[in-house]
Amino acid sequence: MDIEVLDLENINKFNERNEVLVDYWQSPECHKLFGVSNNDENVKQVLEHRIKLLSAVSSSPLGYKHVISGYDDKNQSSDYDVWVIRQKSMILCLAYNYALQNMNQWTWINNCCKMACDTLAVIGVNYATNPQTVANWNIEFRQRELFHHPNPFIARGKKSQPPLFDLFPEVTEQIHFYCSKNMDHLTIDSVHEYITNTIIPNLQTEPPHHDLGSQLIQSFIEKPPCIITVWRWMKNLNYTYSHAKNLIIRMDTRMRNI
Predict the structure, then answer these.
(1) Which one, of 233, 58, 221, lies nearest residue 163 by Cα?
(2) Is the distance from CB of 230 to CB of 251 less than 8 angstroms?
(3) Which are the contacts of 110, defined by CB distance < 8 A and separation ≥ 6?
(4) Cα dist. 80→10, 17, 131, 204, 237 in Å?
(5) Which end of the chain has less neighbouring CB within 10 Å, N or C?
(6) Which among 194, 196, 193, 186 is positioned nearest to 241, based on CA atoms?
(7) Element containing residue 193 per DSSP (H, E)
(8) Distance of alpha carbon 155 from alpha carbon 157, whole angstroms
(9) How many CB atoms lie within 10 A of CB 135?
(10) Nearest-angstrom CA–CA distance, 75 and 240
(11) So what's the pLDDT on residue 199?
(12) What is the pLDDT of residues 114-151, one digit of tens each?
């Protein structure tokens, strides 16, 4: 059984035994759940402030920047990254609203988080379907009222990935495998042909990871990526052009450090 359920049950039992109303919002368990370290601080006011922060994410095109670690100051976020932040913000915001309205009777995960998932899924806000996922977002957000960047490369301070690699990580392995099998005669034309004629059509036949991924693949079907775009992707994967061999080669660690 969840610890939050036990906490609420213990409070209710204490109320019954002592006939004294114990407000959950004043309990140490509540302060701990929402990351309010000062026991004298009003947890409800903290949640009201967070609701305003999360609501503002969808109120302007750049609203997501205010709840993302690092503020995306280099504008590296892809459309998918922004979509993730907006979805997380809406779901957690509604969970906080349900908490404010019902937490003396409801539990956080099984009621507030679950209701937020179920309610918003009806209108397509379905990035989270498991209430535990929303509870984990609260643990993340309660520290500094920020989300980690959804792109792990950017979160770790590394260069961002092209949307195709970001939305379909398996594509990078497929490209590496193809290149390793054809390294003796690897050209940008052959890689371009493999990506446009094999990888992208195969992705179209697979169940979509999410709406943005499906839209991206459909756009590539209608207008395949040009050779210049594919070359940028290859450089992102640490391939370079050898003028001596007139071929594409993959840089090893030693070469990248020269």
Answers:
(1) 233
(2) no
(3) 2, 5, 131
(4) 43, 52, 22, 18, 20
(5) C
(6) 186
(7) helix 188-194
(8) 5
(9) 21
(10) 26
(11) 94
(12) 999 999 999 999 999 999 999 999 999 999 999 988 87
Distance CA 10, CA 2 (A): 13
Tokens found for residue 97: 């609203």
> Are 5 and 107 a contacting pair, CB within 8 Å?
yes
Of 214, 183, 179, 209, the closest CA to residue 194 belongs to 179
> Strand pairing partners for 68?
147
Query: Residue 213 has which token pair?
Result: 């991924």
DSSP character for 68? B
| pTM of the predicted structure, to 2 decimals | 0.61
Task: Give the residue among 140, 196, 138 at the shortest CA–CA distance from 171.
Answer: 196
For position 21, what pLDDT does the model report? 47
Report residue 241's pLDDT band, with 50, 70 and 90 as the boundaries: confident
Say which amino acid occupies 229: T
Q: Strands, DSSP E only, in the chain?
A: 239-242, 247-250
CA dihedral angle for residue 170, residue 165, residue 136, residue 154, rounded to 10 degrees? 140
Concatenating the DSSP letter of every residue in 101-144 gives HHTTTS-IIIIIIHHHHHHHHTTT--S--SHHHHHHHHHHHHHH
Model pLDDT for residues 3-12, shown as the tens digit of each residue:
455 455 565 5
**For the chain, what are the domain ranges?**
3-154, 163-256
Task: Compute the radius of gyration of the chain from its Cα atoms.
Answer: 24
Q: Name the DSSP letter for residue 206.
A: S
Q: Which residues, listed in sequence order, are joined to residue 240 by a DSSP beta bridge? A: 249
Q: How many residues does the chain have?
A: 258
